[in-house]
Amino acid sequence: MNQVLLIDDDVELVGMFKEYLEQEGFRVCCAHDGGAGAREALSGHHAIAILDVMMPHMNGLETLRRIRAHSHMPVLMLTGRGDDTDRIVGLELGADDYVTKPCTPRELTARIRAILRRTNGPRDEGAITLTVGKLTMQPEQRRAS
């Protein structure tokens, strides 16, 4: 699944990132406030959420708390608040990465791909062979010898 959810109240920035990510092969959905973003994140239709910290009504940290209460989906914090305390709080609340603005679309795309590689596991699971002593297992083929 390559569906990205962008949650940010900066409509212009979201539009730029959306256009770039779509050119890179991602499907992109946008939400412009924390409440809508949390509901959309919990819909199960997205592989990753990109979340701004500073938003009106419900900030990104509260949005992250709501997402984490019900889901383990990867979340990348993208925000103008880049001091150590903000990064630490975001990561301790369950963010998978924390990127400060300004950020280039290319860096954002690379970080998204890195997180998805880690969280989605290997693409070709048929090639996995586990060996322990004389025991060899190929889980995808359900073979052991």
Mean pLDDT: 89
Number of domains: 1
Most strands sheet: 5 strands, parallel
> So what's the CATH class?
Alpha Beta
**Helical/strand content category:** alpha/beta
What sequence of helices (H) and strands (E) makes up the elements? EHEHEHEHEHEEE
Share of helical residues: 25-40%
Indicate the proportion of strand residues: 15-25%
The order of strands across the largest sheet is 2-1-3-4-5
CATH A-level architecture: 3-Layer(aba) Sandwich
Give start-end ranges of low-pLDDT stretches.
none
Cα gyration radius (Å): 18 Å
Distance between the termini: 33 Å
Shape: elongated
Multimeric state: single chain
Q: Got a strand count?
A: 8
So, the CATH homologous superfamily?
A: Response regulator
What is the third-level CATH name, the topology?
Answer: Rossmann fold
What is the number of helical segments per DSSP (H or I, 4+ residues)? 5
What would your notes on this structure say?
The chain is built from 5 helices and 8 strands. It is elongated, with a radius of gyration of 18 Å. It has helices at 11-23, 34-41, 60-70, 84-92, 105-120, and strands at 3-7, 27-31, 48-51, 75-79, 97-100, 130-132, 135-138, 143-144. It is of the alpha/beta class and 145 residues long. It has one domain: Rossmann fold (3-Layer(aba) Sandwich), CATH 3.40.50. Strand 3, helix 3 and strand 4 (75-79) form a beta-alpha-beta unit.
Identify the notable features of this structure and list them briefly.
145 residues; alpha/beta; Rossmann fold; three-stranded antiparallel sheet; 5 helices; elongated
